[in-house]
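4.2 Preliminary Data

To establish feasibility before requesting continued support, the project team ran the inverse folding procedure on a target of 430 residues. The structure was first converted into the token representation described in Section 3, and no sequence information of any kind was made available to the design step. The complete token record follows.
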């Protein structure tokens, strides 16, 4: 019996060791020079043959390497990247990575609070740095993420994390930077599961009354200054009214977008449109109100049967031509690995490759308010970047072979690669 227990324990330990995530990188103090690669700066510029110096987690300089002869004793490591591509680390927005592990196992889902109004729910304290999903998305170049809650009318607050850390405190890059809202739609759905038209109308009116009353109460609470009774939900709303937080509103239909904009104007809060499948219909209103858009997937079917079949592919270029700030992301958590290819799809329908790159690097950084430290390859910014063998926005050539987060070289192995090699060996292909 004891032998059987010991054997079972040994097997479990072996499986755990096999399934371990890569160890987070230690502090990187070495002076590194990335030499000869094509640098895509993230701001629309490209340096065909570049020299990028990294030190103490920062980019020291980015320059053309032609005619530049580095002093060997000035660097601990010089990496020849001739023929390779260098990019800023990609930034995923509005994702549930680290909050969701296995969709069918409820205990691993920590992105949705009970109730309709939870602006004080903090996604950051639920963030799981040991998620098996995180290493799989880093392999495609996603190094920073905005983790956001779901559910209810006011879901909670989002935070920005670096995707290499021991715990959520280490991962936190910018905490509690925005509140997320699910705007109630006026659309009447004709389906048995949706209820009658009257029931849907009642639900919509109830939701709008709830939101209107809550914002009114929150503003009154904010005006009190030092209220006698502390309310954590209203406390979290204060930053919306003083402009230090943004309100990320998930909404798609044109008339719902207009209603959401008017609601935010009335309450004097800064809105960011999330999803916005109909945003191409209301570009003048978005432009007039300086509203940024987070496009939730380009690789998608259009909203309506009679829409242009390429409408989702073209949406980024439509917003670009209208002068509207936008970023591209993907929904969920594990699907966020497709982020560079969502941007790549847009580059085939009106955007240039560098504009598409900006949509997943510098543009999200600007929306998140972190563009002074990350989002592009510029001197003084964080050394968070990737090196790809080919075009990182093309799934055929995206092959990330080197990545740094805050100057630390990270391990790009993941459990899917381990399983791939395991079964390739089993069937004699390796």
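Position-by-position output of the design step:
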């Amino acid at each position: 019996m004891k032998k059987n227990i010991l054997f079972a324990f040994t097997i479990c330990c072996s499986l755990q060791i096999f399934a371990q995530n890569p160890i987070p990188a230690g502090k990187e103090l070495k002076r590194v020079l990335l030499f000869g690669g094509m640098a895509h700066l993230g701001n629309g510029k490209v340096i065909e043959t570049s020299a990028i110096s990294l030190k103490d987690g920062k980019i020291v300089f980015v320059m053309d390497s032609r005619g530049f002869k580095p002093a060997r004793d000035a660097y601990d490591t010089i990496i020849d990247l001739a023929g390779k591509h260098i990019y800023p680390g990609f930034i995923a927005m509005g994702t549930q990575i680290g909050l969701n592990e296995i969709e069918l196992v409820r205990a691993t889902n920590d992105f949705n609070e009970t109730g309709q109004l939870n602006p004080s729910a903090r996604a950051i304290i639920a963030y799981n740095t040991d998620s098996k999903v995180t290493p799989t998305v880093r392999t495609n170049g996603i190094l920073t993420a905005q983790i956001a809650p779901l559910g209810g009318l006011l879901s909670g607050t989002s935070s920005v994390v670096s995707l290499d850390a021991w715990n959520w405190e280490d991962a936190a890059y910018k905490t509690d930077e925005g509140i997320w809202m699910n705007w109630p739609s006026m659309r009447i759905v004709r389906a048995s599961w949706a209820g009658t038209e009257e029931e849907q109308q009642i639900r919509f009116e109830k939701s709008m009354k709830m939101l209107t009353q809550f914002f009114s109460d929150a503003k009154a609470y904010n005006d009190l200054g030092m209220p006698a009774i502390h309310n954590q939900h209203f406390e979290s709303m204060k930053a919306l009214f003083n402009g230090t937080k943004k309100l990320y509103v998930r909404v798609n239909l044109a008339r719902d977008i207009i209603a959401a904009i008017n609601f935010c104007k009335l309450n004097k809060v800064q809105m960011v449109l999330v999803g916005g499948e109909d945003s191409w219909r209301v570009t003048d209103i978005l432009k007039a109100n300086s509203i940024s858009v987070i496009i939730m997937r380009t690789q998608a079917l259009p909203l309506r049967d009679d829409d242009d079949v390429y409408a989702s592919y073209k949406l980024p270029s439509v917003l670009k031509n209208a002068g509207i700030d936008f970023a591209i992301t993907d929904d969920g958590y594990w699907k966020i690995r497709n982020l560079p290819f969502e941007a790549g799809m847009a580059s085939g329908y009106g955007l240039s490759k560098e504009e598409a790159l900006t949509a997943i690097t510098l543009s999200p950084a600007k929306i998140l308010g972190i563009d002074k430290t990350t989002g592009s390859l510029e001197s003084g910014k964080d050394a968070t970047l990737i090196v790809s063998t080919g075009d990182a926005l093309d799934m055929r050539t995206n092959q990330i072979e080197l990545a740094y987060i805050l100057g630390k070289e990270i391990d790009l192995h993941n459990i899917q690669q381990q399983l791939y090699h395991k079964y390739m060996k089993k069937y004699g292909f390796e």
